[in-house]
Amino acid sequence: MSKTEQDQASAPWGSVFTDHIVTARYEPDGGWSELALEPYQPLQMAPSSAVFHYGQAVFEGLKAYHQPDNSVATFRPDQNAGRFTRSARRLAMAELPEDHFLGSLRLLVNADRDQVPTRSGESLYLRPLEIAADEGLLTNPSKTFLYVLMGSPVKDYFAGGVHPVRVWISTEYSRAMPGGTGEAKCAGNYAAAMLAQKHGADKGCDQVVWLDSVERRYVEEMGGMNLFFVFENRLVTPKLTGTLLPGVTRDSILMLGSDLGLEVEERLITMDEWEQSAADGTLKEVFACGTAAVITPVGEVVHEGGSYAIGDGGPGAVTMKLRETLLNIQEGTVPDTHGWMHRLA
To answer: Which one of 141, 178, 209, 303 has the minimum C-beta count within 10 Å?
Structure first.
């Protein structure tokens, strides 16, 4: 076992990092600099840097997987690159070219290839980040930016592996509003979510479920993950309305569900429908998905008026089949019929 593997075995998820980072800088006159490979180290920034005051910061999350032929590949990185660009545009930030985004992944993974986990279920989590770097307190969009890519060897996102989570439906707080930054993967969205997450934890729940900010009826996301509902042979997910993050895993599951013969549907779902369909048995399973957690079953729902179980409270067959199919594609143990995997090293 390598030192990185030893550190990872005892450390919280995402707290161990590889030896290097990749950086690039943006200046309005010269555009983006060349990518630079540097040791993992603290960033040197002035206290007046715009990111600390006005929150111009966007990020992504994707994973690199060890493959059976000893290569290293990542999953649909072009989708992450596109979302990174859209997030930056929404926050009036410089848009990183896709070749820079993909090039940074190759540069880091090749440098730290010996720190990519080789065991099934483990991966190298890659975190691209862009932040505003102007110095000064004027409330103007920054003109200079810093891009940083770091890598973290990880196991399962939830301690103890795959098990159904207990979720709290938040009616007091909202994650995003129409015209806001719900579609962007920006730091402020996550900061604003933390109080509701704490409130859910105080209720004995693992995650918080968000409702729409206008009517407080329609189910949107679970924490930072997209939600899916299984009704008999139908796979349903809340449709993208501009307030939900368009997840790469979400999009992939819609295609995999169709591959498995399920009828897939994107539509509005109310919290009342969720509870009623769970009570009458038409709702069979619920799960959340995202890059970090992959697919996580939901076993129990808690709200101000009480609580209810999903099915028998355990992981559902469709949930686990989709999870297994997705992981097998990512780890290269089944054919990649959609052409989703991108070799990095």
So the answer is: 178
* Lookup: tokens for 326: 């997705």
How would you label 86-110 residue by residue, b for 16+ Cβ within 10 Å and e otherwise?
A: ebbebbebbbbeeebbbbbbbbbbe
Distance CA 266, CA 249 (A): 15
What single DSSP character describes residue 33? P
Residue at token pair 């540097």: 38
Confidence at 3, pLDDT banded by 50, 70, 90 = very low
For residues 190, 194, 161, 332, the Cα torsion angle rounded to the nearest 10 degrees is: 0
In angstroms, the CA 90 to CA 337 distance is 33
Flag the least confident range among 159-173, 204-218, 265-279, 314-328: 159-173
Tell how strand 234-238 and strand 263-267 pair up. Answer: parallel
Give dist(CA 74, CA 208) in Å, integer. Answer: 29
Confidence band, pLDDT 50/70/90 cuts, at residue 1: very low
Per the structure block, which two tokens stand in for 195? 């109080």
> How far out from the chain centre does Cα 309 lie?
26
CB burial of 132-146 (b: ≥16 within 10 Å; e: otherwise) equals bbbeeeeeeebeebb
Give backbone dihedrals phi and psi of 237, rounded to 5 degrees, phi first.
Answer: -135, 145
pLDDT at 203: 94
**Contact (CB, 8 A) for 84 and 104:** no
Looking at the DSSP assignment, which residues form a beta bridge with residue 167?
Answer: 207, 301
Q: Provide φ and ψ at 263, rounded to 5°.
A: -85, 120
Q: Mean pLDDT for the chain? A: 95
Strands (E) across 133-242 are located at 145-154, 165-169, 207-211, 219-222, 225-231, 234-238
What residues are paired with 23 via a beta bridge?
36, 148
User: In angstroms, rounded to a whole number, what is the distance separating the alpha carbons of residues 280 and 283?
Assistant: 8
**Closest by CA position to 229, among listed 183, 188, 270, 178:** 270
Reported in sequence order, the residue ranges of 188-262 that DSSP labels E, i.e. its strands, are 207-211, 219-222, 225-231, 234-238
